[in-house]
Amino acid sequence: MLMKTGRYLGVAALVALAGACNGDDGPSLSQVKIEKAPTKSGDQQTGIIGTELGNDLRVYASRDGQPVSGVSVAWFTSEGSVNPTASLSDPDGFATTTWTLGSTVGAKAATATVTNASGSPLAFTAEAVDAVPPPGGTVVINVLGPDGGSNRFEPSEVTVTVGSTVEWVWPDGSLQHNVVPDIGTIPETSGNLADGPHTYSFTFVSAGVYHFHCANHGVAGGTGMSGTVTVVDQQL
Q: Three-class SS of residue 233?
């Protein structure tokens, strides 16, 4: 009887050992966590419509406080595009993508998603604005010719925000020019024909499209020496 009991105990011990070695993979892994990168996450940027944001979007993948590599992050936006649309976290736990804004101004949104991860999905926001100067700035238009080329305004078309000033500049060699509005008094006439060096400034206080010309070398309607100032409301 004692021999049988010892035999049974030996078999039980072997079975238990086999189960410990082959039937159990150890403690289960904890859940992956994703969060925005602690610095330079790319969230809450402002950019010009139709262009890439200056900083990539970045997420950090971790498990039990340690970075995890090889985590697949899916990126999505309906307001522009992201490239790539999926990326893997690197050995430091970071995954990135580049966000190109769409063609309209205003608040935009993008997401980062990791299947079965804590913190997923993550939301990123951006503000898309027009490519216009800040209010109160000054834009220069050169009044040129005939020295060095044809009589012309350069650039002939500019876009500014309400409250901005346009300064027309006659350099040395610029002969017999002025600034005259096509219609009305915006911009006001610069006065008599003048030679360079000379300057004239006008501040635009109302949104609109304003055409001008040189009385000596152009006519209203965009013929000859002429130009346009487009004034827009500030985009927030």
A: coil
Helix, strand, coil percentages in the chain from 3-state DSSP, rounded to 5: 10, 45, 45
Q: What's at 72, amino acid-wise? A: S
Q: For the whole model, what pTM was predicted?
A: 0.49
Cα–Cα distance for residue pair 21/31, rounded to 1 Å: 25
Residues 217-228, buried b or exposed e (16+ Cβ, 10 A)?
Answer: bbeeeeeebbbb
The pLDDT tens digits for 72-131 are 999 999 999 999 999 999 999 999 999 999 998 888 999 999 999 999 999 999 878 776
**Could you give the CA distance from residue 220 to residue 193 in angstroms, rounded to a whole number?**
17
Question: What span, in angstroms and rounded, lies between the C-alpha atoms of 195 and 32?
Answer: 72
Sign of CA dihedral 191, 195, 199, 202: positive
Give the C-alpha distances (Å, rounded to integers) separating 168 from 63, 142, 190, 218: 62, 6, 9, 16
Are 174 and 150 within 8 A, CB to CB? Answer: no
Question: Token pair of 52, please?
Answer: 């890439």
